[in-house]
Each structure stands twice: as structure tokens, then as C-alpha cells.
TrEMBL record, chains A, B:
CDD domains: WHTH_GntR (cd07377). Pfam families: FCD, GntR. Residues 1-20 are annotated as: Disordered. This is GntR family transcriptional regulator. It comes from Pseudomonas frederiksbergensis. Keywords: DNA-binding, Transcription, Transcription regulation. Signal peptide: none annotated. Residues 21-88 form the HTH gntR-type domain. One of its GO terms (molecular function) is DNA-binding transcription factor activity. Gene3D superfamilies: GntR ligand-binding domain-like, Winged helix-like DNA-binding domain superfamily/Winged helix DNA-binding domain. PANTHER family: HTH-TYPE TRANSCRIPTIONAL REPRESSOR NANR, TRANSCRIPTIONAL REGULATOR, GNTR FAMILY.
Length: 254, 254
DNA sequence: CCACCATCCATTGTGTACAATCGCGGTGTT
DNA sequence: AACACCGCGATTGTACACAATGGATGGTGG
């Protein structure tokens, strides 16, 4: 029925994100990407067997990948009831944003101190890719690249614990955006990213932090987190109870 | 041969730390605790089969537990070569402490805002336990409880991402202390913890943060991180290469 | 005598079979 | 007709068997 991907079996290394190449990395990266690009909606059930068939690997691998995703907070692992794409509550979203503000501030300061010319060039490249994606209309890739920009920035900060924490926060943020966006505007406006890089390259820590904080403001000002939760927010409110919500998003279907 | 623990099999819930009771949680908690109490030295190899025999479970469970520990940075998972207790380099230690300063500051501020009377009481209880452990001479339990104090504080901050990050940082800190301590003094002096609680209870954020920052200063002033690495620090310097280092620490054995 | 190479062994990586658990639908009773 | 109980199906949890990898060791050639 649902054999959507060719089994990919022992694809030597052709995958996109899995650099280490071990199978569970590949699976992890694909699911991760799918969630970040909103091809998997919050609440979607992630059956081990189905995923195993899709990727052509056994449940063992799938299980590890899901476990990792659960650690990062993008997947919810309910004992004996399977895994679902996480659907963060408003409160959880607030907590993530609070933590992110904190981390982004520190990362920015550190990046100003430690970023190499090469890393700055890579950052610029990512902003270009991001802009391209949005102008191409590929909103999903845009969101993902926008997140990856912040991750790259974390790498420039040269602090391993912060990088891994940032990874978790960025993924959850993408999920939150997917769930709560007002829908009217594009997300991380990439000129903000560009300005940020400029400030970092100029080693202007104070300006960079200011820009980053404003950037954070812009991000969550685009969300519906505050108070108002009527009509279709009902889904969000009770989404942690749902389990069979299908990818199709518009609630007015049939 | 080395059946040290009774298989514990389906022990209903009698364990100490594993509240959720699923077997891998129990195993995870035990190894975690052993590392934090320095019953497992950095660099010790963690054989899946041996652990499985000890805990009376299959390698599947052990593997999951190790995976979790690796995510938190206290275990190093080398592909095809097994797991070892992490032995953080000086640079890694610095990164952990930097991140911790950051997080502890935020946690302190948040705890001042959100800590309930009940939580404050629990914190006081933990300090008591900690003092008892040290005065009883149980240094391992003291270190662990000291770490758990900081974790409890994170819970009072009511921010899930910060809690999980703090968990990772605290465990790594314990490992670092185990590896680099000067050995002369007790670790988290518990009166600092008491003063901190007082400030939090008084809702004096500024004072609380100051105390916490000084507390952090004291912690890493007790370590040998800075420059000096002679004689027995040789172990630490090359520990990331070692793999068969047995728990017994004094190198003058047989 | 030393260095290089092939083989062996120990340990991990993966797949699969079986057992346990939960949700769901049927059936009987009140 | 509505509620409660029971059995069934599906999915996850666990263990085990086999495959693959890497290190160690012994042998051989220079």
C-alpha cells in the first residue's frame, strides 16, 4: 500500500544530511527534516513498523531514531502507545522561547569572539540558501534553513553543550512555528540574519546581541501564543490528547 | 562468575531512583548514580554484556541506557568499540562550566520568581542530606546530592528545556570534579547552598544570583583546570585515548 | 631480530521472533 | 437502550541469534 520510498537499503552514503552514515542517523535525519519542514504535522503517529518499511530497515533502527528525536523534544514517546510528533502546548512553547533567548544571547556573544572568517562565509551562504528557498516558495525548506542558520551560529560559539542544547531548542521552535504561526508573514526575515552576521563580523558584540534579541522578539510576535485561543486553536489545546491526526491540515476537509 | 547483583528482574518498584519503573530507567539510573558517585572512574569500559549480566537484563536494555547516558555526555559511545565513561578534556570542562554559569544564573532568577514553599522545603532537606553524607564520610553520595540540589533548583525554575539541559550539565560537572578535583576540600560547601535558599525564599533575585555566581567560582577554583598539568594529570591528559582503565585508581597496582 | 600481514577472537550492530500491554469492539445484562 | 465486562487485534517491549567490525596475536619473510 504505502511503499513510498524505494527501500534505500544500503545506500552507500548518498543521503543528504547523514554524514556519519550509520543507518539510524539517516533515518533520524529524514524524520527530523520532515518534521521541520512540516511534512509531518504535530500529533501524527509514527508507527515503527510503517517507518521501518518506508526506510527499508528494521524496527531496531527506527526505534533508536525515535528515541533520539524524543530526547530532543520533537517526538513524544508514550509507553506502549507508540510515538507521535510532539505538539507543544502554549506553556511549553513559552518555556522553549525563554530558554532560547537565553542561549541565543550567549551564543551571539561567543560567536562574536570566536567565529572564524570561514564560518562567517558559511553563515552568509546559508542565508542565501534560505532566501532562495523562500523566494522559490519552498516554505518548509526555508524554515529548516532558518533553523540551521541558528545552529551554525551555535557551532561558531565553540561550546559543545550549547550546540546540543541549541539543536534541541531550534527543532522545537520549528515545531512551534508550524503549530502556532499566524501565517501572514515569512518567519526569520533573512535580512535580520544578514545584519546579525555583519555585526558578528565587525566583532560588535553589543550590537549583535541587540539584533539577536530583536530577532527573537520578531519570531514570537508572529505567533499566536498570547492569550487568544479560539476556534481552531482548540486543536492545539487538546492536541496532546490526539493521536490519529492526519497530515492534512485544513480542518474543513470533507 | 561475576554475578554481583541479584537479577532484580521484575522488581516491582523497589529501586531508588527509577520512578517510572521501566527497566531501562532503572539501569540508566544505577549507572548514572555510579558515575556521579565516582564508583565508575572516567575511562572505564562499559561492556554491554557484562552490564546485562549484572542487571539481569538483555543487551537491548543496556544499550538504551548507554544511549541515553551518551546523550547527556557522561558516556562516550565509540562505534564498534563500545562505551566508556566519558573523560572530559580540560577544554570540554571549560565549556561545561561556561554553559553552567549561564544556566545557573537563569535558573536562579526563575527560581526566585517561581519556587513554591514546598520546593524550598525540599531544597533545605536536600542540603541536610548532603551535609549528612559528607559528615558521614560518604563523599560519593555527597557529590551526587550536591548535584541533585542544583537539579532540584532547576525544577523550581519551571522550565522543562532548562531542566533537561541542567541535568546534562550537572552530570558532566560531577564527572569533571571526579577527574580534576584538587582533593583538598569538600565540593559544594553546603552553607553556600543554604545561603542561596535563604535568598530565594526572601525573593531577593540579585543576591541569589550573586551567591550562585560565587558558588560557581568556588566550584571551579577547586579544580586543576588552569594550565598546571604535571605528573598525575598525565592520566587526564591522555584519558581520552585510554579504554581499559580499571576502576581501581592508584596506578601502583601489581 | 624486527616489521608486516593474515587469521582469530571478542565485542558491537542489526534483524527477527516471541511475549506483554493497551485500546477497541462485541456481547450480555440490568 | 445504556452500561459494564470480556475477548480480540494491533502495536510496542524484550530477548536472542546471527552478521560485521576492529583489535590482538602469531606466523612468516626480509
Amino acid at each position: 500500500m504505502n511503499e513510498q520510498l524505494q527501500p534505500l537499503k544500503k545506500q552507500p552514503r548518498a543521503g543528504k544530511a547523514g554524514r556519519s552514515g550509520t543507518q539510524d542517523d539517516i533515518v533520524y535525519a529524514h524524520i527530523f527534516e520532515a518534521i521541520l519542514e512540516q511534512r509531518l504535522a504535530p500529533g501524527t503517529k509514527l508507527s515503527e513498523e510503517a517507518l521501518g518499511e518506508i526506510f527499508g530497515v528494521s524496527r531496531t533502527i527506527i526505534r533508536r531514531a525515535l528515541s533520539r528525536l524524543a530526547h530532543e523534544g520533537v517526538v513524544l514517546l508514550r509507553p506502549n502507545r507508540g510515538a507521535v510528533v510532539a505538539s507543544p502546548s502554549v506553556e511549553e512553547a513559552r518555556q522553549v522561547f525563554l530558554a532560547r533567548r537565553l542561549v541565543e544571547r550567549a551564543i551571539t556573544e561567543l560567536a562574536v569572539q570566536h567565529a572564524t572568517a570561514e564560518q562567517i562565509a558559511e553563515l552568509r551562504q546559508m542565508v542565501n540558501d534560505e532566501r532562495d528557498s523562500f523566494s522559490r516558495g519552498d516554505r518548509g525548506a526555508g524554515i529548516r534553513l532558518s533553523g540551521e542558520f541558528h545552529l551554525k551560529l551555535a557551532e561558531a560559539a565553540k561550546n559543545a553543550p550549547l550546540i546540543s542544547f541549541q539543536r534541541s531548542l531550534v527543532s522545537q521552535t520549528s515545531l512551534i512555528i508550524a503549530q502556532y504561526e499566524s501565517g501572514n508573514r515569512s518567519h526569520c526575515s533573512y535580512d535580520e540574519h544578514t545584519q546579525l552576521i555583519d555585526a558578528i563580523e565587525a566583532r560588535n558584540g553589543e550590537l549583535a546581541v541587540d539584533l539577536m534579541m530583536h530577532h527573537m522578539d520578531h519570531i514570537d510576535s508572529k505567533l499566536n501564543l498570547d492569550e487568544e485561543s479560539a476556534s481552531d486553536d482548540l486543536h492545539a489545546v487538546f492536541s496532546h490528547l490526539l493521536q490519529t491526526k492526519k497530515p492534512g491540515r485544513s480542518s474543513a476537509k470533507i
